[in-house]
User: Fold this.
Amino acid sequence: MPLARRKQIAAVAKKHNALIAEDDVYYDLRYSGKHLPVIQSFAPDNVAYLGSLSKTLAPAMRCGFAVIPHSILDKMLVLKMYIDMQTSSFTQAMATAFLQHDYQAHVDTVRAVYKKKRDIMLRELKRSMPAGFTWNEPEGGMFIWLKGPKNFDAAALLPKALDEHKVAYMPGSGFFVGKEQGLNTIRLSFSNPTTQDITEGVKRMGKLFTKELASKNN
Assistant:
């Protein structure tokens, strides 16, 4: 999100005394560009800033942190206690030790690995996707957003992709409010698969999508 947009959102929240949950779990996973000030820094009384180590340190650790406005802090702590009693002290102790000694070197390694995977997926998309498909080139995170022609339905095609081509993707329609929105979109993850699987998986998707569009146009 551009800096000007962040400032605009913060200004709206302050004007209407609204509360924003700023979910920034991918903050450390930036591969190009530069880190920008978080929205919370422009409206600290209106933003609950949320972060996590599950994307950088260990997926199963589920240890995070939050910067909460004083106006809702006490209520939020009570709600959290009802939900999980307390976060594991042992998990917090491990996370603290890692943050104090090895975190930056670890994050540098993770960024290098994920950047390589991102670049490979972008390269394979250019090689394999049929005409009519576009995608973003993310500066960070774990995902690439793919968009097909208007007559392409990613969710309807997913069973065939899984059963016949042994390849998986996340239909983008699940990230929209309306039932008929985003049917031609896909979220692709490059963090978990190996570089070989990325190359092969994108090739399989490209063949499947090319065949699907050809059948629709005939």
Q: What stands out?
A: The CA atoms of residues 212 and 218 lie 10 Å apart. The chain has two domains: 3-101, 105-217.
